[in-house]
Design brief:
Blueprint: E1 2-5, H1 12-35, H2 39-44, E2 55-57, E3 60-62, H3 64-76, E4 90-94, E5 98-103
Antiparallel strand pairs: 1-5, 2-3, 4-5
C-alpha cells in the first residue's frame, strides 16, 4: 500500500486525476524496478527512513530494506526469472489526507 500526503480538502478535486496518475506511475515503476533487479531505483520510491516503510504481501511482512534484501536473495537463486508484475488496473482510493494504492 502506498500513502501520499494530500493537500487540504478545498484543493482535492482539481488535483485528484493528476494525483491518481502519479500514484499509478510510482506503483508500476517501483514494481518494474524490482522485477528487473534495479534495487537502488526501487528503494528511491520509498520513504528515506526505513522504519517508516512497510511491505505487506503474501510472502513478506517487514520494511522495504528487508524486502529488497529478500528480493535480491530470490534473484540470486534464479527466483525472479518468471516474475513479472502486471499491475493494471491500479486501484487508487482517496481520503482527505492520503491516497491509498494497491495493485491486482
Amino acid at each position: 500500500m502506498l500513502r501520499i500526503n494530500r493537500k487540504s480538502s478545498s484543493q482535492q478535486q482539481p488535483d485528484y486525476a493528476l494525483d491518481r496518475l502519479r500514484v499509478e506511475q510510482v506503483v508500476v515503476s517501483e514494481r518494474y524496478c524490482r522485477d528487473s533487479a534495479q534495487w537502488q531505483k526501487m528503494r528511491a520510491f520509498w520513504h528515506p527512513d526505513d522504519s517508516r516503510t512497510s511491505v505487506k504481501i503474501t510472502w513478506f511482512n517487514e520494511t522495504i530494506k528487508g524486502h529488497i534484501a529478500a528480493s535480491k536473495d530470490m534473484a540470486e537463486r534464479g527466483g525472479l526469472v518468471n516474475v513479472k508484475h502486471f499491475i493494471h488496473p491500479v486501484d487508487v482510493t482517496s481520503s482527505p489526507v492520503f491516497l491509498f494504492c494497491g495493485g491486482y
